[in-house]
Design brief:
Length: about 180
């Protein structure tokens, strides 16, 4: 087939850089297409479209900080699970697994869920973060109770102590409160 753009080169099926849009953003990705040997003009056939769309969605997912189709399939394979078993493991429909691996973009909460269920280091960091949140909430609760009892540190009013806790963080204020108690003792 002679190139329709330059009328000189021949169109050959191969790999080239294709520019495409995904969710309103423009990306350049590698894809299969008929490419002119002389001018580089390319045509993407319908049969090559699914791969192009997947590569465009992966470019979009990378930019958004989401797992790519390869990363999701990689997680599934590293756990030794079929798409059906992986769907059961994540408590989603198998259509979601197929869609994510073929180029459909998972929403942010699904992305988080996949990481928590498939990445041990990510899950451990999350567990540590939840523990920290509980500790901070407990500190805050105890701290507020102390202020309610007017045991404010260093002669502060309750309002000043609460304002300071927002500026310094509950942890630092709690340390100050403890020092205050020692001072009063
Ligand atoms: Zn050409």
């Amino acid at each position: 087939m002679t190139c329709v753009a330059c009328d000189k080169g021949r169109m050959k099926h191969g790999r080239t850089t294709v520019e495409g849009r995904y969710r309103g953003r423009v990306y350049k990705v590698q894809a299969s297409a008929h490419v002119c040997s002389k001018c580089g003009y390319y045509l993407v056939e319908a049969s090559d479209t699914p791969e192009l769309m997947r590569n465009l969605s992966d470019a979009y997912r990378s930019e958004m900080g989401l797992l790519t189709s390869d990363q999701i399939r990689g997680y599934r394979e590293s756990l030794g699970l079929s798409q059906q078993r992986f769907a059961e493991y994540l408590k989603v429909g198998i259509a979601s697994i197929k869609r994510w691996e073929l180029g459909g973009v998972q929403d942010a909460s699904s992305d988080e869920h996949i990481r928590l269920k498939c990445d041990a280091a990510y899950a451990a960091a999350n567990a540590a973060s939840v523990k920290r949140l509980h500790e901070e909430a407990t500190d805050l609760r105890v701290f507020k109770e102390q202020i309610r009892l007017r045991h404010t540190p260093m002669g502060m009013t309750a309002d000043t102590a609460l304002e300071a806790s927002e500026l310094l963080g509950v942890r630092a204020m709690w340390a100050a409160v403890s020092r205050g108690f020692e001072h009063y003792a």
